[in-house]
Design brief:
Elements (H helix, E strand, L loop, with lengths): L16 E3 H11 L4 E4 L6 H9 L3 E4 L3 H15 L3 E5 L3 H16 L3 E7 L2 H5 L10 H5 L5 E4 L6 H13 L5 E7 H5 L1 E3 H6 L15 H12 L4 E5 L1 H5 L3 H11 L3 E3 L19 H7 L2 E5 L20 E6 L11 E6 L2 H11 L9 H23 L7 H13 L5 E5 L2 H9 L8 E3 L9 H12 L3 E6 H5 L5 H6 L4 E7 L27 H6 L3 E5 L2 H14 L3 E6 L16 H9 L1
Parallel strand pairs: 2-3, 2-4, 4-5, 5-7, 6-7, 9-10, 9-11, 11-12, 12-13, 14-15, 14-16, 16-17, 17-19, 18-19
Antiparallel strand pairs: 1-8
Helix pairs in contact: 1-2, 1-7, 3-4, 3-18, 10-14, 12-14, 16-17, 16-22
The protein binds adenosine-5'-diphosphate.
InterPro entries: DHS-like_NAD/FAD-binding_dom (IPR029035), HACL1-like (IPR045025), Oxalyl-CoA_decarboxylase (IPR017660), THDP-binding (IPR029061), Thiamin_PyroP_enz_cen_dom (IPR012000), Thiamin_PyroP_enz_TPP-bd_dom (IPR012001), TPP_enzyme_TPP-bd (IPR011766)
Protein name: Oxalyl-CoA decarboxylase
Keywords: Lyase, Magnesium, Metal-binding, Thiamine pyrophosphate
């Protein structure tokens, strides 16, 4: 145990005492936490103050879900747990969707929440904002812990850090009742209770026979395919992944948040021939990607019925969750890919030319279709034309981070906007959840200092739109582009009655005025040329901006690419 100086912790009480607030901050600092996202209120306001006074950057939000989403995105980007601070009761509850989303996406984050008096809560005596927070959080977190004594603060923080980041990363809930924060103990003894965890995410080497087995399966493949998922992006093993892909010559398909791990322009990328690659591959190497709904559960007819799967994952229980895994590779991606790369010397892989040609032909055909769509210039503008303009600007800014949410705004941007750099695309992820936009954008700007472009559907933006005030208050280099077709999916549904139809918002809404309200810059654009110029200017300014991009309300399809998951629309069309 490395003891930590308690010199900063003597603001309250006699000089030789330290209180819970200061000990929490000392424990966070000992574990390299340099930023905390949150909203203050009873009982954690002083925790934010003490953190800020001690040099931790505190970013205050307008709604806790966004603060939690920011912490989760920080975890994905930095491979260190992002920390979110919430108040008791409702503030805690608002943080839970983000905690659950982080856990689902395997992002390391810690929600630290103040909570009400245990004695009153447990007898249901009606305390201020009382909820049994520990048990409420449990189903949504990788683990949930409560600190009941000041002398356990260092241990509680260490345990939360270790759990969030080791093995399969996830969201951890750490409950600290207000009275524990207010307790005091001898400062020197308090310092002894805080420690820095050693080797937070230990390497996990694959068994040599598992590597051997995987290479043998690969060597027999006639139509091999590598699928890179966001676990591969998270692992920060970019060089060895690239070396393996290039040395093996196997075509690769990036899942959306793995785009840029190798550039989308890479000759082995088959992103533009996705359906064919998936349908025809006979051997699939999954690297940090689950065979969940995003990959059609590995089922035919989307996949070939006799496809063999090799899976690299740090969580062995993931294997066989959907399909038989012919060659499971349990371990961390850096170690496994190193072993696979080295194993190629003795187990060379030859990719048949016919497979490469088949994919290349489909890629060329789909690329040509895409170019045609992007070249159209209809009035009013539609999704492709707006995205074509955004793509042109982003090509000059490969270091810009892209945040993306919506239905059509997500599905189409994912295909149109290429990524050249790893971990520069953040989107709705495993759940396809709306509302991550501003939280993720804030984290990307805070953690990296690079420009961020958030490509938002107008409906999606609404879930976290008030955080534009946060973006403006901290003067973050975030440009929010709102693809405004005036509705959920689209804005032209005819109403049955005097109220607007359920999918309809306001296609004439001037979202850019929200930025202006808080001191940011607003743009309203109606053509690709105007969008290009506004976006170039906004990125160059490194200041907060919203570009409201007026689209045809008839542009877009219901449920985006997920129409098959929408039972209501199927029933209506079958009945009508
Ligand atoms: P995508 O949605 O991009 O397909 P998923 O979130 O489904 O990706 O899958 C990510 C997988 O990566 C998870 O199963 C997770 O356990 C795994 N993973 C995360 N980090 C690592 C790591 N460092 N090494 C190995 N596997 C990892």
């Amino acid at each position: 145990m490395t003891a930590v100086s308690a010199s900063a912790g003597q603001a309250r009480g006699p000089a030789r005492l330290i209180d819970g607030f200061h000990l929490v901050v000392e424990a966070l600092k000992a574990n390299d936490v340099d930023t905390v996202y949150g909203i203050v209120g009873i009982p954690i306001t002083d925790l934010a103050r003490v953190a800020q006074a001690s040099g931790i950057r505190y970013i205050g939000f307008r709604q806790e879900t966004s603060a939690g989403n920011a912490a989760a995105a920080a975890g994905f980007l930095t491979r260190r747990p992002g920390v979110c601070l919430t108040t008791s009761g409702p503030g805690f509850l608002n943080g839970l969707p983000a905690l659950a989303n982080a856990t689902t996406n395997c992002f390391p984050m810690i929600q630290i929440s103040g909570s009400s008096n245990r004695a009153l809560v447990d007898l249901q005596r009606g305390d201020y904002q009382d909820i049994d927070q520990l048990n409420a959080a449990r189903p949504f977190a990788k683990a949930a812990y409560r600190i009941n004594r000041i002398e356990d603060i260092g241990r509680g923080v260490a345990r939360a850090m270790r759990t969030a980041i080791s093995g399969r990363p996830g969201g951890v809930y750490l409950d600290i009742p207000g009275d524990v924060l207010g307790q005091a103990m001898d400062a020197a003894a308090g310092a002894e209770t805080v420690w820095r965890i050693v080797d937070p995410a230990p390497r996990q080497l694959p068994a040599p026979e598992a590597v051997e087995r995987a290479l043998r399966v690969l060597a027999r493949a006639e139509r091999p395919l590598i699928v890179l998922g966001k676990g591969a992006a998270y692992a920060q093993a970019d060089d060895v992944i690239r070396e393996f892909v290039e040395a093996s010559g196997i075509p690769f398909l990036p899942m959306s948040m793995a785009k840029g791990l190798l550039p989308d322009s890479h000759p082995q990328s088959v992103a533009a021939a996705r359906s064919l690659a998936v349908a025809r591959a006979d051997t699939v190497l999954l690297v940090g990607a689950r065979l969940n709904w995003l990959l059609g559960h590995g089922d035919s007819p989307q996949w070939s019925a006799d496809a063999k799967f090799i899976q690299v994952d740090i969580a062995p229980a993931e294997f066989d969750s959907n399909q038989p895994i012919a060659a499971p590779l349990a371990g961390d991606i850096g170690s496994v890919m190193t072993a696979l790369r080295d194993g190629l010397a003795t187990h060379p892989v030859t990719v048949p030319a016919q497979w490469i040609e088949e994919l290349a032909e489909r890629t060329a055909r789909n690329d040509a279709k895409m170019r045609e769509r992007l070249a159209e210039d209809p009035r009013p503008m539609r999704f492709y034309n707006a995205l074509g303009a955004i793509r042109a600007v982003l090509q000059d800014h490969p270091d810009a981070y892209v945040v993306n949410e919506g239905a059509n705004a997500l599905d189409l941007a994912r295909n149109v906007i290429g990524m050249d750099v790893p971990r520069h695309r953040l989107d709705t992820g495993t759940w396809g959840v709306m509302g991550i936009g501003m939280g993720y954008a804030i984290a990307a700007a805070v953690e990296t200092g690079q420009p961020v472009v958030a490509i938002e559907g107008d409906s999606a933006f609404g879930f976290s739109g008030m955080e534009v005030e946060t973006i403006c208050r901290y003067r973050l280099p975030v440009t929010v582009v709102i693809l405004n077709n005036g509705g959920v999916y689209r804005g032209d549904e005819t109403a049955n009655g005097s109220d607007p139809a359920p999918t309809v918002l306001n296609a004439r809404a001037r979202h850019e005025l929200i930025a202006e309200a808080f001191g940011g810059k607003g743009y309203h654009v109606t053509t690709p040329a105007e969008l290009r110029s506004a976006l170039s200017e906004a990125i160059a300014s490194r200041a907060p901006a919203i570009i409201d991009c007026e689209l045809d309300p008839a542009a877009g399809v219901e449920s985006g690419h997920l129409a098959s998951l929408n039972p209501a629309s199927k029933a209506i069309s079958a009945g009508g």
